[in-house]
Amino acid sequence: HLSKFKAIITDLDRKPHLVVILVWSNPASLTYVGHKEKIAKEIGATISVHQLPTKSTFENVRDIIIESNNDREVDAILLQMPLPEHLKPHTRTLLDLIESQKDVDGLTTANLGALISWKQDSLIACTPQAVMSIVEAHRSDLAGKHMVIMGRSEIVGKPLIHLALRANMSVTTLHSHSKNIQTLTKKADILVVAVGRPDTITDDDIKDGALIIDVGINKQDGKLIGDTNIVDQERVDVTAVPGGVGPMTVTYVMHNLLAAYEANSKRGKEESQEKNQLSLSGYFFILLLLSFALLFGYMVGIYSPTISEMHQNWLPK
Ligand code: NAP
Q1: 220 flagged as catalytic
Q2: Which is nearest to 193 in space by CA: 144, 234, 228?
Q3: Is the CB of 179 under 6 A from ligand 1?
Q4: Does the structure show a pLDDT above 70 at 303?
Q5: How far apart are CA 130 and CA 244, in angstroms?
Q6: Average pLDDT over residues 125-144
Q7: What is the pLDDT, as a whole number, of residue 213?
Q8: Could you tell me if the CB of 215 is within 6 A of ligand 1?
Q9: Which of 65, 141, 180, 259 is the one with CA 20 to 30 A from 93?
Q10: Which residue has its alpha carbon closest to ligand 1 atom 35?
């Protein structure tokens, strides 16, 4: 994927530009932004990271979003989650300030709604796209397969439900209020675990031959681990943590950046065409005024008395 993106970007005069807003909340976020920065640079895209201190206000974040929305040279905007505690209640409002065509994470209400209505040209959340691409690479004939998703957050579970439905799968979603969880996970052909707790799924919770997608990222004893702990890996296919869904998610950020770039460039062209049309109609208008003025002058010339006639009229008889 990335070498394909790099080849596309090499041929572009203006490079795709991603703005990342990171309000300092935890060290993990800095690591995630670092990965995005590294990959963006590798493929030749431009990335500007606004690092704001934890005590930043709603207005501080809002102003950067609005400025980036209005900047035609910015193609995509990413507000790194999670926000610090005092900004968390404003998460939805801040996300929805991002222009939907620049919403590289696909998290605005407009893009989430577009996904639900299966609109083709919207930007789709990156982790669910990453999960689906791994599923498609490792399983064929998805129609009718049973996907069980553990977790219903807006960045993973909820959008994934709709991507799986689009692929004609049968979907079960589990959350903290679900009952008989083990009975359900054991029925999954594809089990997606996005809970954020180590050992959520062990050998006793799975069916032979299942594909397990471990989305979780947890730090334990200084090591990164996922949400699953499966000892007998011969029974199932399971994605690695680190190295599985994480890198694919960053890949889909770059995929969405290119889509946002295309939309932004198209808009730029349409706007300059509109401007050209406006200035052309301006010229026509001036030409029309001049013609009227000439016509008026001509008519006045025909119907009004000549100066010598006027003089004669004024002269005393
Ligand atoms: P989140 O917002 O905290 O959501 C966790 C979800 O798990 C909630 O829906 C919660 O249910 C559900 N849950 C809690 N206990 C459960 C249980 N016993 N059984 C079933 N569901 C249960 O977390 P998130 O942002 O989705 O992230 C989840 C994990 O994925 C985290 O470790 C995060 O770091 C990781 N992540 C990784 C990537 C990547 O690129 N690899 C991207 C995003 C997130 P309720 O809704 O009822 O509370």
Answers
A1: no
A2: 228
A3: no
A4: no
A5: 9
A6: 98
A7: 98
A8: yes
A9: 259
A10: 216
For the CA of 32, the nearest atom of ligand 1 = 40
Global pTM value: 0.88
Per-residue pLDDT reduced to its tens digit, 39-82: 999 999 999 999 999 999 999 999 999 999 999 999 999 999 99
The two structure tokens encoding residue 251: 């890949």
| Best residue among 33, 91, 107, 153 to mutate for probing ligand 1, ranked by most atoms within 8 Å of CB | 153
Whether 107 lines ligand 1, by a CB cut-off of 6 Å, is no
pLDDT greater at residue 283 or residue 259:
259
Rounded to the nearest whole angstrom, what is the distance from the C-alpha of residue 190 to the centroid of ligand 1?
17
Tell me if 194 CB under 6 Å of ligand 1.
yes
Q: Is the pLDDT of residue 149 over 90?
A: yes
H-helix segments, the chain: 2-10, 27-43, 58-70, 91-97, 109-116, 126-138, 157-166, 181-185, 245-303, 307-314
Q: What share of the chain is helix, strand, coil (3-state, %, to 5)?
A: 50, 15, 35
Q: Whole-number mean pLDDT of the chain? A: 93
48, 14 contact by CB (below 8 A): no
Burial class (CB in 10 A: 0-12, 13-18, 19+), 152: middle
Pocket test for ligand 1, best of 177, 186, 217 (most atoms within 8 A of CB): 217
Ligand 1 neighbour 125 (Cβ under 6 A) = no
Residue 281 has a pLDDT of 76
Per annotation, catalytic residue among 105, 189, 205, 227:
105
Better-predicted residue by pLDDT, 25 or 263: 263
- Determine the Cα–Cα distance for residues 101 and 119; give it in Å rounded to an integer: 13
